[in-house]
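Q: Hi! New to this. If I give you a protein sequence and the SMILES for zinc ion, can you show me the bound structure?
A: Yes, paste them in.
Q: Okay, here:
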Amino acid sequence: MTFLRPTLLTLACLFAGQIGASDLPSLGDASSSIVSPQQEHQLGRAWLGLLRGQVAQLDDPQLKDFVETSVYRLSETSQLQDRRLEFVLLNSPQLNAFAAPGGIIGVNGGLFLYAQTEAEYASVMAHELAHLSQRHFARGVEAQQRMQLPVMAAMLAGIVAAAAGAGDAGMAAIMSTQAAAIQEQRRFSRQNEQEADRIGLLNLEKAGYDPRAMPLMFERLMRQYRYDAKPPEFLLTHPVSESRIADTRNRAEQYPAQGREDSLRYQLMRARVQLTYEETPGVAAKRFRAMLDENPGLDAARYGLALAQMKTGQLGEAGQTLAPLLSKAPEDIVYNLAQIELDMAANHLDAAQRRQERMFALYPSNYPLQQAHIDLLLKQQRTREAERALDELLKNRAKDPDVWYQVAEVRGLSGNTIGLHQARAEFFALVGDYNQAIEQLDFAKRRASNNFQLASRLDARQRELAEEKRLVEQMLR
Ligand SMILES: [Zn+2]
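A: Thanks. Here is the predicted structure of the protein with zinc ion bound:
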């Protein structure tokens, strides 16, 4: 049931209602009953682990980097105070995005399919950031004056189940605890949505985007799905009504028309996502070629075609398709990464290495470039260097399970068995499997018994994870 994806916005609103749950357990006494930002943070992060453990994600470094960079940039002009954000990219072509307590931003790959310009994409992200900055989640809980952390946690658990495809079971869990709140929640939901639209518009304008992108996208979605029995899930949590469109339209029109509408970078990322969700790379190639025939200047279609050709193994053709882009913009990181990938696929490893060196001089801390470098080192069987490069990458991405997964693999290859178990422990903790995480540290400790310093570090980390596990279980009880 595709519409039962994580919709934390709905959740925020569910909490807003009178839960009337005097018979439900609450944590602590009434004086400590307001959800603190710290608790919100902990709960959100614990939830993120559960979500990651159960829902397929996109692990494309370029896409991850684009989402992270663009949302951080938006957050700078937003009202968000706590800017410790975590991102999760769900592998789904459905239109959806959500914000969860604790600074979690979730995006479906599908958002790139539906948002036709960068400003449209940014209007959705600005809306989500506004849910966070207004703390719609915690405010809903405060509205009942008593913290019902276990209820909140049960709801989150239910939503994970729903997101993982357990569908009705997850929904039933939510319904049974919250049936009485549904009616009241709708009113709060509309209020929250309206507030998120308004604050999001303000943020869009401040960040230099054209705020008209928001009503434009709403209008198009409404036209597209007016008579559709199964609209995209985002529209179920974010119904676009005439009045909502009119409200954002009126507000957007008050700003001078000078904001940015789109960027080539966004269109290139969009081509990557389109390729991902096309039936086969062959079908994608046909579609990109048709776009290019119609408009030979469409660089994003040319880029998409080159990637599609690469995927079908037509490496020579891919190189020819890519060449005009590289001569037009020789320093563009996205084009160069495509050429590096192509060189690696064709086993031209020296050429790939020379290009990487040139790119590192221009973009020294670029995550997708670092990842490409690691992949090349592994292909060259320079395992130790790959291991060091990964340790370097971890300095900026210590909470990225994709990185820890590869770290474990590479440490295994290089014979660093203690390091392998440590990396597995971090990976399992990030995907919410604390038992396995703690067990991995047991394995590591057994091997480190004659290295006192290392053993005590492992011990300390194991205690931290055990405490996190205890907190999560307490919240989910
Ligand atoms: Zn919303």
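A: Strands lie at 86-90, 97-100, 104-108. Let me know if you'd like me to explain how to read the tokens.
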